[in-house]
Amino acid sequence: MMLGPLELLGVVVGAGAIAVALPIAVFAVECGAALWPLGPDLERSPAADDGEPARSPRLAILVPAHNEALTLGPTLAALRPELGPDDRLVVVADNCEDATADIAIAAGAIALERTDPIRRGKGYALDFGRRHLAQDPPAVVVVIDADCEVTPGAIARIAQLAAARQRPVQALYLMEVPPNPSPARRVSALAFAVKNWARPRGLRRLGLPCLLTGTGMAFPWAAIAALDLASGNLVEDMQMGIDLTIAGAPPLFCPQARVTSRLPSGDAAATGQRTRWEHGHLQTIRQVVPPLLGRAIASGRFDLLALALEISVPPLSLLVGLWLAIALLAGILGGIGGPLWPAAISATSGLALTLAVASAWWKFGRPFLPPQQILAIPLYLLGKIPLYLGFFKKPETQWVRTERDAPPPDGP
């Protein structure tokens, strides 16, 4: 039986509604699971089989740094007390034109200077540092970005957990808002908290692997030694998590250890940072998710399927925008006499998305976005449209360092 124009249009719009509903469902399940307590088995510190506290493994902290003279000193000063007598603090001064290496040496760190104007990016710096460490491998390597503040005890916690489980461990990585932040910066910090706190916590509660977020990462030596780090991938941390999960060492989220950085206050720096992150994520969805789904089905591995579904959730702003577009089309279609089932799917997924975002904001996001500034969210979403249009016109392909703000006088 031939379908009429409205029925055919209904199939197309309905397919779009289903395609958007799937990542919304994943997002909603993660945010919902995040509301439940982790339980004593997940909250307690790593321990030996006899119940004694776990010993801190011999570790190396690896700090990739490109022109980080402005922020590196306070970061290293905070890391020094976290080291034991046999531990190492290694800074890779990567293509630096400032005093990054000198500051590292003055802080008591090992400074490795790397110069290669063609092969630029964090992955190359990490590979350079790893090759240095391979001469005397530590039990665990912890990666910390040069502009981060680490809470006391966080390094030991993730290092002990990585050594005990022989899996990479991701600390909770959050963004602080700059002084006198605009509403857009607050919404951006909220979106970051949902991505890096609510969703990984939900995955941990479900017993599933998380994505790596770039800093506050602890790797058993065998895991990081096997990684292909020397790449210009815009989201090398996401790719590292994928490779490790495929290799049988899925990353584990540790919300008790916290690492913080600060959103840039300048509009150009903030836009460049978001463009690199989100274009890199969209490229990863396009290039990685289909083969990862195929591998999950062929091997029968649920952790690979869960990781593919997690990666397939686009940035929150884009997810909301896609839902709005499909919901509008479905509503118009139903209003002119077409099938109503696409509108029903859109309404259901819209309710799930709203409840998920509201619960994540209530549980995790209120310090970043107070209630009186919630109305800034629509304007923030509108401001992201050029970023996503730019992906389809000319996606970002080159790593570009985000310009840093000076740390406040009272600390990093």
List its salient traits.
alpha/beta, 8-stranded mixed β-sheet, 12% strand
Any overview of this molecule?
This protein has 412 residues and is of the alpha/beta class. It has one domain (14-37, 57-412): Spore Coat Polysaccharide Biosynthesis Protein SpsA, Chain A (Alpha-Beta Complex), CATH 3.90.550. It has helices at residues 5-34, 40-43, 72-79, 100-106, 122-133, 154-165, 183-205, 221-225, 236-246, 267-299, 302-312, 316-335, 341-365, 376-383, 385-393; strands at residues 59-65, 88-94, 110-114, 140-143, 149-150, 169-176, 217-220, 252-262. The protein has an 8-stranded mixed β-sheet with strand order 3-2-1-4-7-6-8-5, with helices on both faces. Helix 1 (5-34) runs parallel beside helix 13, helix 7 (183-205) packs across helix 13 (341-365) and helix 10 packs antiparallel against helix 11. The mean pLDDT is 87.
